[in-house]
Amino acid sequence: MTTLPARDLKLYRFESPKSAHVHELPLAHKGAWKALERHFRDQGRRFDLHQLFAGHGQRGEIFTAEGAGVYLDYSKNLVNAETMILLVQLARECALPQRIEAMFSGEKINNTEHRSVLHTALRMPPNSRLEVDGEDLMPQVQEVRRHMGEFAEQVRTGAWLGHTGKPIRHVVNIGIGGSDLGPMMAYEALRHYSQREIHFHFLSDVDGAAFAETVRELPADETLFIVCSKTFTTLETITNACTARDWLIAQLGEEGAVARHFAAVTTNIEQAQKFGIDPANMFGFWDWVGGRYSMTSAIGLSTMIAIGAAQFEEMLSGFHAMDEHFRKTPLENNLPALLGLLTVWYTNFFGARTQAVLPYSQYLKRMPSYLQQLTMESNGKHTTVDGDTVAYQTSPVYWGDNGINGQHSFYQLLHQGTQIVPCDFIGFCKPLEQIGNQHDLLMANLFAQSEALAFGKSAAEVRLENTPEELVPHRVFEGNRPSNTILIDRLTPHSLGALVALYEHSVFTQGVIWNVDSFDQWGVELGKALAKQTASQLADSSLPLRHDSSTNALIRRYRGCRSE
Ligand code: F6P
């Protein structure tokens, strides 16, 4: 565990602001920010991991933190104890502890939409209470969970019969963004624990090919569609849901079949009813759950059908364990806070533009896509909560892939490219499938990559290998490339929950420092509105085109080409 010297802590103690809502000073005027700028100028930009490790024999054990079953080694970062003290101080000056409390207690911290942010309530244990505006939210949360459990169990046991009396063997989740990425990531991650007699499909793209390929082999009378949409107005989802309904009716020959083959998860019960879904198969949630934070709401229905209600509860308990860790652990040892602050350090001081996430687990192959929405839809903002334009960079581009596959494609750039790309390595000590020594081989690669990135290989070392002189510069690894290693005992529903919550709260931490609303997503609206207008112009070629000359020409070309 990190123990920062008390003497140093005192040196950097600044007052925390009282208000949980606003930054009292712009970020760049804060004492800790200015101290970080000086620290970066005087030391940080020249940090050398060789020296940092040489100067502190226990660094690999000290620059670590642990909680909720997750071990974080952040020693291979370009930081020293002073950096960490200053980053933590910055968090205090930005009122992170107060903001955490404000979120957990239901204050309307999503200020542009005037909403509470309470995805953490979804994972609270049964029998807990959470009063917001005089109302205990937990009975509704528990009731939806109970309903989900009942429905999931019926589908899993084959008691839920389709229109022709057959049990369900295929579940198609229709949704996009947070109504797709969470369930899909969780299904892939927890496949080991899933009911193998039922097959899961995820339909998000409005490209007709996605629908056609999804249903090609599906027996309609054994298929359940779960339409997931917080708003129930998302064009892609509603279009796919309508196509699925038409397909089902055509296959089974009766409109009445819809009731046994469609369920809906939404906050917009009225629209779902209009669509024709039986209210008994509807699962609600609330506007205080953001789409990208919704995998523990009823949006997780497909996950629950896959792994069962008991294991779903375990996943929730993993989320909750990390929630509690985030809420109660001092920032110095608080995993999400540390992870978020390190991202701020690289983004705002080293000028890093991207952050790689590299799971060494086949089961986590969808984790990077999931994290892309979580991180970038949350913090890809240029306006502060007060409506001012930020004077600093906000979210980096998150990207990544299964680490082993990445090694044979993009790691070249990580090792020898010209930009700094902080990496998160994620691995598990125990495999879910023990096949020979394959897991050791997998993990050896993870450890080797973080070591190679950090310490590289000097020209002298390359020469010692009798390398021809002209190849020496090509074979040198500068090293000094930062990474975190997240090590977990085993991939289970519980540990997946803790891991996802770790990133959720890291995103929250970043948003608090950058003073942005991490829970709205106005940036997706313009494209949606233009697409609607353009869709009518594609449907009716007589409609005039009033776009820019490029868009007009492209549409004319498309119209011409389509009608050939
Ligand atoms: O367009 C972005 C977005 O609003 C996401 O925030 C959301 O997860 C996704 O679309 C899907 O929205 P819905 O669940 O309302 O269909």
Strand and helix map with partners:
Blueprint: H1 6-11, H2 31-42, H3 49-54, H4 59-62, E1 64-67, E2 70-73, H5 81-93, H6 96-104, E3 131-132, E4 135-136, H7 138-157, E5 170-174, H8 181-189, E6 199-203, H9 208-215, E7 223-228, H10 235-252, H11 258-261, E8 262-266, H12 269-275, E9 282-284, H13 301-328, H14 335-350, E10 354-359, H15 367-379, E11 397-400, H16 403-407, H17 411-416, E12 423-430, H18 438-455, H19 459-464, H20 472-475, E13 483-490, H21 493-514, H22 525-539, H23 549-562
Parallel strand pairs: 5-6, 5-7, 7-8, 8-9, 10-11, 10-12, 12-13
Antiparallel strand pairs: 1-2, 2-13, 3-4
The structure holds 6-O-phosphono-beta-D-fructofuranose.
The site of 6-O-phosphono-beta-D-fructofuranose has 14 residues, from loops.
GO molecular function, one term: glucose-6-phosphate isomerase activity
Pfam family, one: PGI
Catalytic activity: alpha-D-glucose 6-phosphate = beta-D-fructose 6-phosphate
Shape: globular
The portion of residues assigned to helices is 40-55%
Query: What strand line-up does the widest sheet have?
Result: 1-2-13-12-10-11
If you average the pLDDT, what whole number results? 95
Q: What is the number of E strands?
A: 13
Distance between the termini: 68 Å
Quickly count the helices: 23
Spans of at least 5 consecutive residues with low confidence: 1-22
User: Biggest β-sheet, characterized?
Assistant: 6 strands, mixed
The unique ligands bound to this protein are: 6-O-phosphono-beta-D-fructofuranose
Global Rg = 25 Å
Please state roughly what percent of the residues sit in beta strands, choosing from under 5%, 5-15%, 15-25%, 25-35%, 35-45% or over 45%.
5-15%
